[in-house]
Amino acid sequence: MILSKLLLIVVSIGFTLQFAVAQQQTYVMAIHGGAGTILKKNMTDSLEAAYKDGLKQALLAGHRVLQQEGGNSLDAVEAAVKVLEENPLFNAGKGAVFTHDGKNELDAAIMDGKTLSAGAVAGITNVKSPIEAARAVMQHSPHVMMVGAGAEQFAKEQGLEIVDPSYFYTKERWQGLQKARALDSLATQLDHDEQSSIPEVYKDYKYGTVGAVAVDRAGNLAAATSTGGMTNKRYGRVGDAPITGAGNYADNKTVAVSCTGWGEFFIRSVAAYDVAARMQYGGLSIAAAATAVIKKIGDLGGDGGLIAINQNGEVAMPFNTAGMYRGTIKADGTVDIQIYK
Ligand code: ASP
Q1: What are the pLDDT digits (tens) for 82-98?
Q2: What is the average per-residue pLDDT within 142-171?
Q3: Residue 12 pLDDT
Q4: Is residue 19 part of a domain?
Q5: N or C terminus: which one in the chain shows less Cβ crowding within 10 Å?
Q6: Any domain includes 211
Q7: Pair type for strands 117-124 and 145-147
């Protein structure tokens, strides 16, 4: 009798363990390629196909990592973001937007949800992959964030690929800067009342920041974000992307988040961390927490979106702009890519 009871207990523990292991094996990745006034009517079929293909290549790069035995979410998000940095369609790495002075100043951040380690760089101009630089800061320095010339020197010492700043140039982004400069001078010509509507134009000064969040087979979360920031930015302006907790965050206890949009509002809202906080302290679901944060950004007058993932592989991707380039890939390789609302 006692023996059969014991046997039952052992068998049921076995089942529970098996179930837990089976549950942990979910690995999922979500990515974004920026939020903004992305309208179907302004898009040609071939451009839309190019964006979708770019997103797909990034998802596949991340998935290749997650698929492997021991493949971890940090390597996956870095791999996905690197693909997007190399794609000139997106505002990160090659194809980054220009500053007022005609330069490309790049920002990136990465975070490990298991250890809460984080690394970030801001205002760098000659490191081919800013996300690699952020990862190096996290793993090979006692610091979390490095900026400008110092960050570039560190990246060089770490053996990362250094390029001539002209590598980041694209004609489209250069033309975007000329348009923004023209709008700026128009703004200074307008009288005070008319100027109050000018901030609206800033909404179109950013597009195509990239980011990735993932959960791996071990249940570890990670987030990575990389951007050129906002077109026509001045005075060493830095947005939310490289600020841990604002544009990028990961904690195994709750969620991994990567944001895109009007960075000043995401910084003021501590947006990425706010998703985690609403889940941890408020008991909100990932969907409710993520939606509430984007609503708050909207209430403040900002716009943008975010991607979020938890250990169960649940994904939330709210945004309050016309569109957000986004996609997911599940363990079985199912890819879902969306652009518009
Ligand atoms: N959040 C970025 C920034 O403000 C821009 C973007 O997401 O497109 O620098």
Answers
A1: 999 999 999 999 999 99
A2: 98
A3: 52
A4: no
A5: N
A6: yes
A7: parallel
What is the tally of structural domains in the chain? 1
How would you write the chain as a 3-class SS string? Answer: CHHHHHHHHHHHHHHHHHHHHHHHCCCEEEEEEEEECCCHHHCCHHHHHHHHHHHHHHHHHHHHHHHCCCCCHHHHHHHHHHHHHHCCCCCCCCCCCCCCCCCCCEEEEEEECCCCEEEEEEEECCECCHHHHHHHHHHHCCCCEEEHHHHHHHHHHCCCCECCHHHHCCHHHHHHHHHHHHHHHHHHHCCHHHHCCCHHHHHHHCCCCEEEEEECCCCCEEEEEEECCCCCCCCCCCCCCCCECCCEEECCCCCEEEEEECHHHHHHCCHHHHHHHHHHHHCCCHHHHHHHHHHHHHHHCCCEEEEEECCCCCEECCECCCEEEEEEECCCCCEEEEEEC
pLDDT-derived band at 126 (thresholds 50, 70, 90) equals very high
Range of the domain at 278: 40-330
Find the CATH number of the domain harbouring 111: 3.60.20.30
- Cβ(239) – ligand 1 distance below 6 Å: yes
Q: Give residue 279 CA to ligand 1 midpoint distance, Å.
A: 24
Q: Whose CA is nearest to atom 4 of ligand 1?
A: 263
215: in domain: yes
| 169 in a structural domain | yes
Structure tokens at 264: 């000043």
Mutate to test the pocket of ligand 1, among 209, 235, 259 (most ligand atoms within 8 A of CB): 209
Residue nearest to atom 7 of ligand 1 (CA): 260
| Residue 118, strand partner residues | 111
For the whole model, what pTM was predicted? 0.91
Q: Is the pLDDT of residue 299 over 80?
A: yes
Which tens digit of pLDDT belongs to each residue from 35-66? 988 888 889 999 999 999 999 999 999 999 99
- Vertex 286 angle, CA 281 and 290, to 5°: 90
| Encoded amino acid at 158, one letter | Q
What residues are annotated to the active site? Answer: 209
